[in-house]
Every structure is written in C-alpha cells, then in structure tokens.
Model the fold of this input.
Amino acid sequence: MAGPSAGLPYQRDQTATPGRAAAGCAKRPASKLKSRHGSAMRRGIVRLLGACAAPLAAVAMLGAVSAASAQTVMLSTTMGDIVIQLDAAKAPKSVQNFLQYVKDGHYNGTVFHRVIPDFMVQGGGMKADLTQKPTRPPIPLESKNGLDNNRGTVAMARTAIPDSATSQFFINLKNNDFLNAANSRDGNGYTVFGRVLSGMDVVDKIAAVQTQSSGPMQNVPVKPVTITEAVVQQ
Done:
C-alpha cells in the first residue's frame, strides 16, 4: 500500500465520435458537377453545400448539448460549497460509481481526512472519528482516459492495487503530472473523472487548514472539514 511518505493519494484498506457528413456529400466535389450553364452549376453547388451543412450543424449542436448536460454534483461542506462536473464519456465506471455513492447518501457526514498543501485534498471515506464507512466492491481503473491530474480535477483514490478504488476521491491542488498513467512509477496512475466547476476557492481554504497526525494517519485536519451533504444537481 502506498503510504503518506510516498506522497500518493492512497486509500486505506479498502462516445460519440464526430459524425460523418451525409452520404455522398464528401464524395461530390464541385468540380465534378456538370452543367451546360454556369447558373445551373452555381445552383447545384448551393444545394450541395446546404445538404452537407445541415448534418455538420447537427453534430455541432449535439456536442454543445452534451457539454451542457454533463452531470454535476454539489458537495456542501462546513467550509463552503464545491460543484463538481463529471465526465461520464471519459470515465464511465468511475462516474457511475461516484454517483451511486452520492445517491446512497454515503458522502454525507464524511470528512476530508487527508490535506496536503500544494498537492491534494482527499475525502469521501471516513467519518470525523476517522472510522471508515462501508463501501461497495472496488471498480476497475480508468486512468488511461486522456484526462490528466491537473489543478481542479477530481480523481479516485486507491491502494497500491490498480483496481481498488471504492468511495474515496481527491481534488488536485496543482498539476500533479506524476499521478498520470504515462508518468507514474507503476504505469497505472490515478483516474480523473471530473473537475471542480465552482468552489475552487473553498478547496483552497480546505488546503490551508492546520493538520496533525492522528494514530497511523498523517495530514489530518485538526478541525474536521465535513461534507454535510452531497447531491446530484442535474
């Protein structure tokens, strides 16, 4: 298990691709449109461009709708609200897992139990007395999804075993490139599944709290920072 000395966010124990143009549009260059009259050729080109533009506009609209409809979760904490936008397209299993814990009320009453300035804040699994809440079985790692552990992103914590993430997550305080699969020591890295949409100022306030060691655990806030409620916004 990766411990605090390793500087990793460890967890204790525990698409639609761009559509093609309408059939025939891309294969009918204007140079091949034959007409005995220039005006007829121009009319043909206009009709051709109109036919191709419609599906392209539809694709653009679909992308805009998808971005607008991305699910968000609000974490109400004792230091303020944090809104997280989830990326189900890139990390479907992690997002589904996170949403289920939210809907089950699992995160209500949990704390940010590990806070390391200039690195990350971690929570989602322990109560104020640092006892762990029961979890569901772990989920597969999705770290090679193209999402990097940059400032403001939200990722799943895990043990040294790649497929061991359950409920705990962390929020990156800076670009932590060494947590990405391509740069990690074990070649696996940590799965990013969302980003802070609003409330990063709250995250920074959490990062600035005084911490202490408590039993075998280090970097524990002296005054608990509690998630009072987690709700799906859309």
